[in-house]
């Protein structure tokens, strides 16, 4: 056993799709724990296990390697496959990420006789029931969320906005709390002014909710005043082809770069070069909306001002006029004005970047947030 794991208490971090490149915050939180040691459990894996950690995925295990068998588990919520792959691991609790996964972790926690913590991050608290029922992977959530609300031990929410939505679904107020995942300010360091370029950075999965097309439209208008600016888009998704066509139609192909999904370390390198980070998210017709916007906090910790839409939980990550700007959703003209304001005034960018860093240190320090998380764990496992 590695020296830094001696004396730690074992827990399971449960996520059906393990180690997605778009979800580094899950492993960052778990690996930042000081008194608890996380092993990871899920259905499929999409990336590498953190060094020194254990991960168990159904797709890796014996007869559960075939998709039809995994499909049966999706339908049935049968915990037995997970019990088999755990290979004798005896955790003190399970921490499921996303309510959609909490309903699968619940039968397993009950069989093991241990507490279940579920964190709600965004779509799991905002997507309409009809939209959830249309997805085989999510359909069990609206069917079993009342049971999760009754039997789950603790519910953590990525923002006050998300907590209000979770309470509206009937989850118990006394067991439902806001808990920010946070950013580690000792890992994400403020950039030097000399690193900045006239780059507008957008980091998002390319789906409707992220509002990327409004940013591209705004960037077209912005270039009339700032022809030296460029737009860098990090992320992938179903809208990439249509967004690329929009860029070509607007004659922006030489000024907009699609880099696809990148590891967190490369994303932070691009943040250090950016004049600003922009997240023009929208409320979709299906009800999906931003829970908080972790990328806004990561940029702020780097000392980069941010521009975000005033929807969902984004206002909890941006102090309008101090750490960045909030703009109305679906409003390319307003977006253009605020991006232009920042490009016009280097000192404003610098001042907002300094305040953004201080804001993250004060309210979103991952180390302090993990202390709170471990205190929650303590309250559930005391005496075990």
From TrEMBL:
Example GO molecular function: glycosyltransferase activity
What keywords sit in the KW lines?
Transferase
Q: Where is each Glycosyl transferase family domain found?
A: 194-357
Q: Which intervals hold domain Glycosyltransferase subfamily 4-like N-terminal?
A: 58-185
**Pfam (any one):** Glyco_transf_4
The answer, when asked if 4Fe-4S is one of the entry's keywords, is no
Q: Which domain of life is it from?
A: Bacteria
InterPro entries per the record?
A: Glyco_trans_1, Glyco_trans_4-like_N, Glycosyltransferase_grp1
Q: Which residues form the signal peptide?
A: none
Q: What is this protein called?
A: Glycosyltransferase
Protein's organism:
Lichenicola cladoniae
